[in-house]
Amino acid sequence: MYKSGALGLIFLFDFYYAIFCTFSARAEVRQRPNAGSAPMSQPNTSTRVTEEAPKNCIDAYQRLPVDLRLDSYRVSENDKQARLQKAVWNFLCTRHHLEESSWDEISKDAGLANNPSRTLSGKFVKALVASTVFDVPGYSEIAIDGAIIEGDLDLTHEVLRSGLSIRNSTFRNNVNLNFLRAGYDVDFSNSSFCKAIEAQSMRIDGSLYFGLSDSLKEKSSSWCSPLNENRNAFIQSIDLTKSSITGELSIHNTYIAGSAGFLTAIVGRVLHIGDSSLDSLDLSDAEVGQLELVGSDFRSSRSLSADGISVAHGAFLNRSHFRGNVGMSAARIKTDLSIRGATFDSGLDLSLSKIDGDFFLGSSGRANFTTWHPDSELSLVHAEVGFVRAPLNAWPASFKASGFRFAGFERPYESSGDVSEDYSCDENLVAIPWGSWFSSAAGNLIGGNAKLKPCYYADWITKISYAPSVIDWLQQKLRGAGHASQASKIGILSKNHERDSAWVEGRFFDWFALALSGLFIGYGYNPWLSGWWAFIFLVVGALVFRTTSAARQRTDEPPHKPFNPFLFSFDLLLPIVQLRKAHFELYIRENLQRWYFYFHRIMGYVLGLFLIGALSGLTK
After folding, report:
1. Theoretical Cys-Cys bridge with 297: which of 11, 103, 277, 379, CB 3.0 to 4.6 Å?
2. What whole-number percentage of the chain has pLDDT above 70?
3. What is the DSSP string of 70-122?
């Protein structure tokens, strides 16, 4: 009995103790910021938080391992670096932002007034940002400006419970952010990275900033290399493969010596690379809210790899210079794609891409037009876009468009300050009357407010590497709008372009066949031309026959009249059929006339074959 009572008392004691621990833990958690969400508001960066800082914050530095309290050389406690790092720790215990102007005060506190320093070890910075002693109200971020960080900064698998800002600083060695978890913004504005930044599988529930910041107008004085090209920051290389950033990723006014790899990365809002220079950029299979690659220089032979990229909003490549290939095949862009003012030295591949919005080429503000190297190539093979908004001089000399689908043509939106865009074209481009059919009911093809001359579309079609599917689609659009004759003109123009391309490419047999097809039946769009040619051969044949001695011979059948020249010419011109056997038995003694009628009979077969092809649709 007593034994049972004792067990009952022990059970009750354990029960109430567990409840007490649970409520104590919840109260402790409420004192810390939530790592999974952004702060509701940013406090004043100059606000002192001495009252809210934990009493053991300053003493916490002494509890760090020796290799964290001292520099990487493990010298004595009185070492210059150790005293400086301790002063930095103490400073941040009372203020959460170490501004660049505060280094004199810190050096004085460290007893280094006559020999100031800004050098911190990478291990010390890791201990600082990973410490929990700063997880108190009033500390939205740990901010350090103007530091020089020696040694590797390894934050692999670390969890940052507040924001991190290391601006105007220089990282002399590698920075490892692989698998880092940050609940707030990470800001490296105006900082330079002498070695690589490794940030694979990193997750930031905020934004990530590199390069020039709007709040930092002055140029940074910290450089890893003299090769800065007047950029505001330097990065050796950066790898964010499989990383996720819920906010913005901004790299502005930065020189990147190597490549930037964002393979399969996720950026929730804006991925911005502006006024920067980099070797190459890999965005293959990435997911981006909005893509902004503006005013930047991509230097390598594979400038941009963005195959399979998904963009929730617009993609803007304006004013950038791509010195190598730009691959955006199978891209999915849910609004507009703009390459206004961009320069392509090699080519742009948009094959299999789907762009729900419009495709902009041409000028961007007061910048130049979209510029193409003579050998550069634009591929729109099986791509789908909305309206195409571009002047003629914004297109490359030729491009591939097999299977290309688009809603029509329209002028780009007018905006003040835009340079004058050239929409002029050759009114006599083709020897067929274009009329004004594009400005009437065909407006649903080219856009109701297009107001572009018909020859614009003729000129545009001549730039396409022969793409039957595009021509067929345009013709279907026109026929659906009740413009069958104009649809035929589109087909003729396309075939003329195919014929000219065959000659340039050395396919002379194809050129000859297309030339005859266009001459005799209008490539199948005007089969009545074969009737005109038959009439011409009929008349010429009759005239030639009248010059022969056979024309004076009389027929064997009554009433024994001379042969009729027109019936003779017509009978020899008809393929296969013989209306009168005597016409074929008649011998023409004159050599020249006899050889002409050999040619006459051959042309009858040629016209017949082309007419059959036209009626069957094989020649279109």
Report:
1. 277
2. 69
3. S-TT---TT-HHHHHHHHHHHHHHHBSEE-GGGHHHHHHHTT-TTS---EEEH
